[in-house]
Write a structure and sequence with these properties.
With about 140 residues, the protein is mainly alpha-helical. About 50% of the residues lie in helices and about 10% in strands.
């Protein structure tokens, strides 16, 4: 007697994997974009600064996110003083003003590898469900 057990097979097309990666990456970039905005607007998020970073709102409004190909993103803050707020500066009299590096604060708050993995897994699961990969496993 011979018993045949069907082999489990999962096959993804290269384009499906690239699309899943890109969708997960864009979701991650959008999450970071929102986190930057949140940090800029949150009073007291930086020690020694009871107010938020927003003054006229120009810094917040100037935030621009650009997706660069697959797996690349760049943020720009298109106001002249953005670098001084982020990095700090020294006044003419020698007094130092500490920076408020909102990009670093966002990366401290978000665990990027875990978040990307979560988003990528969600995208892969969508493909698997569409492809009926799970039909024999339930």
């Amino acid at each position: 007697m011979r018993i045949s057990i069907p082999q489990a097979q999962i096959s993804f097309k290269d384009k499906e994997l690239v699309d899943a990666y890109q969708k997960a990456f864009v979701r991650l970039a959008n999450r970071m974009d929102a986190e930057f905005r949140q940090i800029i607007q949150t009073p007291g998020i930086f020690d020694g600064f009871p107010q938020d970073i927003v003054d006229t709102g120009a810094l917040l409004r100037s935030q621009k996110m650009t997706i660069i190909g697959i797996g690349g993103v760049r943020w720009d803050w298109e106001v002249d003083y953005a670098v001084f707020v982020h990095e700090g500066y020294t006044l003419r009299g020698g007094k130092k003003q500490e920076g408020r590096p909102w990009t670093e604060k966002a990366m401290e708050r978000l665990i990027l590898p875990n978040l990307f993995t979560e988003y990528f897994n969600q995208e892969i699961n969508k493909i698997a469900i569409r492809s009926n990969v799970y039909r024999d496993w339930e």
